[in-house]
Write a structure and sequence with these properties.
heterodimer; A: mainly alpha; MetI-like fold; 2 domains; 14 helices; 2 strands; about 75% helix; B: mainly alpha
Chain lengths: ~325, ~300
């Protein structure tokens, strides 16, 4: 009587051991599958994320010696006028977010109809999104040129007397870049809102229409609240990409004229690859990404509490 | 547009008054149906007008540069969309003087190399994450997800230093390597593996196939849709890339098309027509791929948000 449970116990232990061995073997196989990808990710994704922090505390340049400088890079940034100009311009760039969101939402409502050729129009609106920033910038550089399409048109029709220096005027350049960003981003956010509109229950809208609500109030009272999670998501994406705008600045103005379009990400880039001051560049990058991470965490937390997933339950 | 709207509205009103005059003769239902029909028609008409106007804003600049690339160099700033004497001079010029074939070849090497590596490595890496039970699975998956939130403050700088230390500066491989596998692709592949019915895998195991053989013979054919999605996304991303190649490659002759256009734009600014032709050549493959695989794009973007 006593022997039987012990025997069973033994079998169970044996089976467990066998299972454990099998799992160990499986683990080995699994890591062999993952090894190449994990190695690359470790070197070029995890390592930079971790190493960004210590790098900011060093005076790292290609030529001289690398020395630990403590908080010097950070105090340098605080006292650097150019850094604050860059911060101001990056914050100013967020002004592009409300128009981009409102316009792309309206656009999504416009193309959310089953009429002939609608897919063709949707595709046309999305083309700027898939085109390289270089091509986009070359085209808009010419359109905005003092001799370009817009100025020629305005001058020939005597609307203006002097050509407008869209990209060469310090006060205008940042807004011109914002316009290009708006133009390029419209299609992307339109697709997000479109997928939102198509996953929203339609009966509400219909009943509102039957109740005699006009088009405008149907949008404000019914569609916008239903789109709330999508508004959160795409506003967050668009704020983050506005704060860290880089491509359009890099290609068209390189921070000029007279630092009129100097933004933080471009300043950090220039410190590294123009001045080869890697430590300072990392410190600027770190300061900016602390702000953006906190910002996105806040928006995400608030969105989760109030908005996200309230009809996905 | 406002005028058009007014016109439509007055027209609709006239129709209504005309209808109400005949109320005695026309049944009420017919009158209402007609009113509804006209309203629907004018609404559709307005929608199309709006759609076309927006299309002009979004795609007009591309259309303009396309036309411009066929213009002779004298009338380049001319806005007219009609060309008096269309010419291929700019295309011939860009091939002869700007070594465009070389740049296209560079782009193809970087794009194709990157896509092949990404698809292969992501397919390998995602397989255990989806189908195997092993030690550290949760940790690995969590680490991958966390990279989407954690800031990469000095990513460019650190990767530049790594590539430099590996002696890969000025080499195509140095351009490809850092993005040879992306977290996005791994997660997409994992999702594809998870959707494969379990019976298929079990059947293979009973047959005594090794893990590698199971993966290659059973799993890989099942994840083809995910592979095409990744190929399309990778193609557009890698074809358009310019910043990292400019940082890694020191010899501008090795630049891919997008980077070369920036470089040449500075050098050949007076040759407006050439740059226009080069820009058109750089855009066309991406637009073709996008138009051909639109559906994949929209579905993936929509799916990613819901996740």
């Amino acid at each position: 009587m006593m022997a039987l449970p012990a025997k069973i116990e033994g079998v169970i232990i044996m089976m467990m051991e066998k299972h454990k061995m099998a799992k160990i073997r499986k683990t080995l196989v699994a890591y062999m599958f993952m090894a190449p990808a994990l190695l690359i990710l470790a070197a070029f994704l995890f390592y930079p994320i971790i190493y960004s922090l210590p790098l900011a505390f060093f005076d790292y340049s290609i030529i001289g010696e690398t020395t630990y400088v403590g908080w010097k890079n950070f105090s340098k940034a605080i006292n650097d006028d150019l850094f604050w100009i860059a911060v101001k311009n990056s914050v100013l760039f967020v002004l592009v977010v409300p128009p981009i969101q409102i316009l792309s939402m309206l656009l999504a409502m416009l193309v959310n109809r089953k009429i002939r050729g609608i897919n063709f129009f949707r595709a046309l609106y999305y083309i700027p999104v898939v085109t390289s920033m270089i091509a986009v910038s070359i085209i808009w550089g010419w359109i905005f040129d003092p001799d370009g399409v817009i100025n020629t048109f305005l001058l020939e029709n005597h609307i203006i007397k002097q050509p407008i220096y869209f990209l060469a005027d310090k006060r205008l350049a940042l807004f011109s870049l914002m316009f290009i960003t708006l133009w390029q981003g419209l299609g992307y956010y339109m697709m997000i809102y479109l997928s939102g509109l198509q996953s929203v229950p339609l009966d509400l809208e219909e009943s509102a229409m039957i109740d005699g609500a006009n088009k405008f109030w149907t949008i404000v009272k019914i569609k916008v609240p239903l789109l709330k999670p999508f508004i959160w998501f795409s506003t967050l994406v668009s704020v983050l990409s506005a704060v860290s705008v880089f491509d359009v600045v890099f290609v068209l103005t390189e921070g000029g004229p007279d630092n009129g379009t100097l933004v933080t990400s471009y300043y950090s880039y220039a410190k590294a690859f123009v001045d080869f001051n890697f430590g300072y560049s990392a410190a600027i990058g770190l300061l900016v990404s602390i702000v953006t991470t906190v910002l996105s965490a806040l928006v995400f937390a608030y969105g989760k509490k109030g908005g996200m997933g309230y009809y996905y339950d | 547009m406002a005028k058009k709207e007014e016109w439509v509205i007055t027209m609709t009103k006239n129709q209504i008054t005309a209808g109400s005059m005949n109320t005695d003769y026309l049944p009420e239902r017919k009158r209402l149906r007609r009113k509804k029909k006209i309203r629907k028609f004018s609404y559709t008409l307005l929608t199309y007008i709006a759609l076309i106007l927006i299309a002009l804003v979004c795609a007009g600049p591309f259309f303009w540069i396309f036309i411009t690339s066929f213009k002779s160099s004298q009338n380049i700033y001319d806005m007219s969309i009609f060309i008096k004497n269309p010419t291929l001079d700019n295309y011939i010029g860009v091939f002869n003087y700007m070594s465009l074939p070389r740049y296209i070849l560079n782009t193809v090497i970087i794009t194709v190399g990157g896509i092949v590596l990404d698809v292969l490595l992501a397919a390998l890496c995602a397989y255990p994450l989806a189908c195997m039970d092993f030690y550290g699975k949760k940790f690995i998956f969590g680490a991958l997800i966390s990279t989407m939130i954690l800031p990469n403050a000095a990513g460019l700088v650190v990767n530049y230093l790594t590539i430099k230390n590996l002696g890969l500066l000025d080499k195509y491989f140095g351009v490809i390597l850092p993005s040879a596998v992306t977290v996005f692709s791994i997660i997409l592949m994992r999702q594809a593996y998870l959707n494969i019915p379990n019976d298929l895998v079990d059947a293979a195991k009973i047959d005594g196939a090794s893990e590698l053989k199971t993966w290659y013979k059973i799993m890989v054919p099942q994840i083809k849709p995910a592979v095409s999605t990744i190929v399309i996304f990778d193609f557009i991303g890698r074809w358009n890339t310019f910043l990292w190649p400019i940082i890694v490659l020191q010899n501008p002759q090795k630049y891919p098309l997008a980077a070369a256009l920036k470089y040449l734009g500075g050098q050949f600014n007076y040759k407006f027509g050439y740059i226009a032709a080069g820009t058109v050549i750089s855009i066309i493959p991406v637009i073709i791929i996008f138009l051909a695989f639109q559906k994949y794009f929209v579905n993936t973007v929509a799916g990613a948000i819901k996740a």
